Amino acid sequence: MRAITPGSADLRRYSRHLLIPEVGLAGQQRLAAARVLVIGAGGLGSPVLAYLAAAGVGRLIVVDDDTVDLTNLQRQILYDTADIGAPKADRAAERLRALNPQVAVDAVRARFDAANARELVRLADVVVDASDTFETRYLVNDACILEGKPDVSGSIFRFDGQLSVFGAPGGPCYRCLYPEPPPEHLVPSCSEGGVLGVLAGIIGSFQAAEALKLILGIGEPLVGRLLLIDALDARVRDVRIRRDAACALCGDAPTIGTVGTPARREPPARTVPDLDLDGLDAALAHGAIILDVRELHERALGEVPGAVAIPATALEARLHELDTARTYVVACRIGAKSRWAAQRLKEAGFGRVYHLRDGLLALAARDASFDLF
Asked: In which domain, by residue range, is 282 found?
């Protein structure tokens, strides 16, 4: 992109930026010189890419190996019906160049994987993770940490979204929050559980804002903070997260020095019975205990009275804290990771284990006194 100079016709395009003291001409020049890698051109990637292109970010690198499907159009606003079957990366690049011809757009029609991760991350000043699988999120995080680049991470499911900035100096990485990926088959995707289309725009716009703040060096980026958004109840929470000194990737004695694809696990046989809310009431009346396997940051949104709380990521190491003679009803927020945890208890020899279908959100919806954002 050519330089923006006083008197240039380009000033009119960015005039509303130039009026902001924190941006101004110098800030717009920084945007013009910046390179941003966006991984995923779907629900989150669409608003991220559109707003970064409109803002005048000099080079955008779009990585996506997928094609446009009819089911994408409910939320992936870079595309229209005529694009069905077309490569997302190519079509996104066309739209962005039409939006702002001054922006250079590189369309990479490839899967972001262990073979290209570090090379692609190395090209950028800021990385935006707009992917939709845990496998890719860990890969993006690991590559960013190893290459010293900030990772603007976002995710969405149904009405809930979250985002943070990982890999910034002194801040945590994704593994500080989730040390190990959950079994992929136990985490429902948007195609399985659904997502409110507009939520992608909300979280993607926040991601674009974080990327711009990092480039401009202004404001307080979401470093060490996890922003949680519930679009259904219009509630926003900010949870503090810290760098883990024992983190295998960014800790004081790291053991991860390369990027790689997490091992794929075969789905275990489901031998743990489900309980609905009536079944939960009956089990609790007979002495059962709720085992809350939400992570620490999730529990900050509301505790379960009388429950035993052990995060799913720490369950293996803390099985000895549980009594094999007791009856446990395993629960999490929506009933995904808890299914794996319940099955793990069963495999470890716990005889009376149940799984709470639909998770603690169903309980909160029934009991108005139980506040679980």
From this structure: 274-366
Return the residue matching tokens 């994704």: 174
Q: Distance between CA 151 and CA 172 in Å, rounded? A: 11
pTM: 0.75
CA-closest candidate to residue 360, choices 350, 348, 373, 343? 373
CATH number of the domain where residue 358 is located: 3.40.250.10
* 285 and 194 assigned to the same domain: no
Answer whether residue 279 is part of any domain: yes
Domain boundary at 198, 214, 240, which?
Answer: 240
Which pLDDT tens digit goes with each residue over 281-327?
A: 999 999 999 999 988 877 877 788 889 999 988 898 899 999 999 99
Assess if residue 333 is contained within a domain.
yes
Q: What CATH number did the domain enclosing 192 receive?
A: 3.40.50.720
Nearest to 176 by CA among 316, 319, 337, 311: 311
Q: Flag whether pLDDT at 274 surpasses 60.
A: yes
The tokens for 270 are 């489901």
How many domains are contained in the chain?
Answer: 2
Residue 287 DSSP label: T
CA dist., res. 39 & res. 44, Å (int): 10
Does pLDDT of 11 surpass 60?
yes
> Span 26-44, mean pLDDT?
97
Q: What is the pLDDT of residues 151-202, one digit of tens each?
A: 999 999 889 999 999 999 999 999 999 888 766 545 556 655 678 999 999 9
Same domain, 291 and 229: no
Angle at 244 between CA 240 and CA 250, to 5 degrees: 120
Q: Within 10 A of 7 (CB to CB), how many other CB atoms are there?
A: 6
d(CA 141, CA 38): 13
248 assigned to some structural domain: no
Residue 73, φ and ψ in degrees, nearest 5: -70, -10
207 with 132, same domain? yes
Q: At residue 352, does pLDDT exceed 60?
A: yes
Distance CA 230, CA 373 (A): 8
Tell me if 255 is assigned to some domain.
no
Q: Between helices 45-55 and 197-216, what is the axis angle to 10°?
A: 40
Q: Which amino acid is at 212?
A: L
